[in-house]
Amino acid sequence: MTDNRATGRRATDGGTGAGAEGRNTGRDTAVGPRSGARPGGSSPAGREPAGDIVAAVVRQWQAVRPDIDTGPMEIIGRVNRCAALLQQAEDAPLRRVGLTRPEFDVLGTLRRADHELTPGEIARETFSSGAAVTKRLKQLSERGLVERRGDTRDRRVAHVRLTEAGRDLVDGVLPEQLSYEASALSGLDEDGRHELAALLGELLIQLEGRLGTARG
């Protein structure tokens, strides 16, 4: 899990200008990369245009600006909207234990690494700024979930590890978190999940290579 929170109108409408209409149709969440309208109203061979909010937004843009290619919107808009809707659901278990998603990202990073990490390493793993990680570590330390120790050779370096309470919290909430994710994907068959995972993996590799320097 990474520290990329989808917030505000931009995340809710998928960055397509859906506005209030997008916010009121959360139940229509067809996965975009496998179906959707095409510029000019055409659709991939053998597939009907998707009926999600992004498809409606694309049709509106095509009506007022038929000269532009809305293809990128059909992918990026759906990825953004899916991320916003999924995060709303996935955050529910975290809220119940008093964690924000960025805080859980820090705890999860330490848990899966299963050894001490420096704040800089945590920042890289969670795609966050050093200042943001420092703030989160302070909050988690005050709750007794992580602890820091100084480096014996370099006093400027700190090493962070989970406390027993932090480990128990991650291990307790993770199954519920994964259950939410499995439920969200239940509308896709196994082949569909594999296909989507592979396509998203290819996209992520490309984006990390070109856009991977931004930190939040």
Automatic annotation (TrEMBL):
GO molecular function: DNA binding; DNA-binding transcription factor activity
Database matches in Pfam families: MarR_2 (PF12802)
UniProt KW keywords: DNA-binding, Transcription, Transcription regulation
InterPro entries associated with the record: ArsR-like_HTH (IPR011991), HTH_MarR-typ (IPR000835), WH-like_DNA-bd_sf (IPR036388), WH_DNA-bd_sf (IPR036390)
Residue ranges constituting the HTH marR-type domain according to the UniProt record: 50-205
Keyword tRNA processing in record: no
Region (Disordered): 1-49
Domain of life the protein comes from: Bacteria
Stored SUPFAM superfamilies: Winged helix' DNA-binding domain (SSF46785)
Bias (Low complexity) ranges: 30-47
The protein's name in its UniProt record: MarR family transcriptional regulator
Organism whose genome encodes this protein: Streptomyces nodosus
